[in-house]
Amino acid sequence: MLERISHLGYAVTDIEAAAAFYRTSFGVEPGESEPVEEQGILATMFRVGESSIELVQPTRPDSPVGKFIARRGQGFHHVAFEVRDLEASLAELKARGVDLIDSEPRIGAGGMRMAFVHPHEVFGVLTELVESRGTGTH
Description:
- With 138 residues, this protein is of the alpha+beta class.
- Helix content is 22%, strand content 37%.
- It has one domain (2-131): 2,3-Dihydroxybiphenyl 1,2-Dioxygenase, domain 1.
- Strands 2-3-4-1-5-8-7-6 form an eight-stranded mixed beta sheet.
- The mean pLDDT is 93.
């Protein structure tokens, strides 16, 4: 089911400062920040080898990322894995009794079709499934 790691998500309070840190410290160029209204975040991605890092900043305190930062502070937020067929993967997980946050795909940053598996199922790690675009890149 899992094809590869798509990206690692980091919750930050200031996406511009975080992007500047990665730019000046590691020499990577983050993309433009993009609002994802449904999730209440600004997001930006940048490549690291075959995977990416996603910086996510809450746009409102009651968003899931806003609540995460209020409870735990900034830091690692989620891991995202690519799957070939998101609907089939969700159906397979549901049939195995896995608790899903999203039983149906939704659209995330960059127009990616995605869904979250509940962290209590994955040893406390919020896990995102994103549908592969067939190009091997995100």
